[in-house]
Amino acid sequence: MSLFTAAAVQTTGEPLDLTGNAARIERHVRCAVDDGAKLVVLPELCHTGYTLSPRLSEVSGTLPGASSDFLCGLARELDTTIVTTIAVLADDGGLQNVGLIVSPDGIAATGAKRGLWGGEPELFTPGPPGEHIVADTPLGRVGVAICYEAGFPEVARQLAVDGAEIIALPAAFGAARLHAWKLLTRSRALENGCYLIAANSFGSSGSLAFCGHSTIVDPHGRRLALLADTEGRIVADLDPSVVRDARAAIPYLHDLHRVTGSLG
Description:
Blueprint: E1 4-10, H1 18-34, E2 37-41, H2 56-59, H3 66-78, E3 81-89, E4 95-103, E5 106-112, E6 133-137, E7 140-144, H4 153-161, E8 166-170, H5 178-192, E9 195-199, E10 202-205, E11 208-211, E12 214-217, E13 223-227, E14 232-238, H6 240-249, H7 252-260
Parallel strand pairs: 1-2, 2-3, 7-8, 8-9
Antiparallel strand pairs: 1-14, 3-4, 4-5, 6-7, 9-12, 10-11, 12-13
C-alpha cells in the first residue's frame, strides 16, 4: 500500500427513490475520483435512502442485485474502491442492512449490521455476533463499522486485530448525538492506529435529522478533513507509514494481550 487519496461523501438519499439517489451517488463518486480518490466511502443506505418505513423491503433486492451491481459497475469503470451499506432481502425473507466493500474486481466483503439503533430492530434482522466486515483491497486492508457500531470500541478493535489499516464508517448518525460522533470518530482512529473515513447523512429526511460532520481522521486521532452540515465531499491523502508510526508511538495493539488476555 502506497500513498493514495480517499474521500468521504456527505449526502442524504431521498427515501425509496433509487433512480434519483443513484444519480446523486454517481455524481459524487465521479467528482471524488476526479479529485484523485481511489477509495470512496458513502453514507449508510444511500441508494435507497435511510428510512425505517416498511416499504423499504419493496425496493430492496438480493445480494448480488441491483444496488450492488450499480456500485460494482462504478468501481470497475472508475478503478476505485467504494464502501457503503445497502438494504438486502435475506433468503428467509427478512431485511438486512448490509455493509459492502466493492473494489474494481467486484464485491470484496459483505456483512449485516449488528448494532441496530432505535427502531431499526423492528425492520432489520441483525447480523450474527462476532461477524465483521474486512477485506484486502488494492489500497490495503479495509474494515467497516456501520453507524451506531462505531460507538462500541470492540467493533473497531476487532477490525484492527484482523489487520485493518483503514476503518470505513458509513452512517446515518442522528443530529441529537453530534457530541458522540465528534468524539468517537477520533477515538476509534487513535485507539487502533487506523485511518478512519466517516461518511454521514446530513439535514433532515422526514422525521429523521442527521448530524453531518463527515470526517477523515489519521491514526494519531488528528482530523485531516471535515464537512459540517452541507452536501459535498472531503478528500485527504492517506500514507501507510503513518499507521506504522502511530502503532509504534502508542502500541495498543501490540500490548493488547497483556491487558485483556484476548483479541491480541
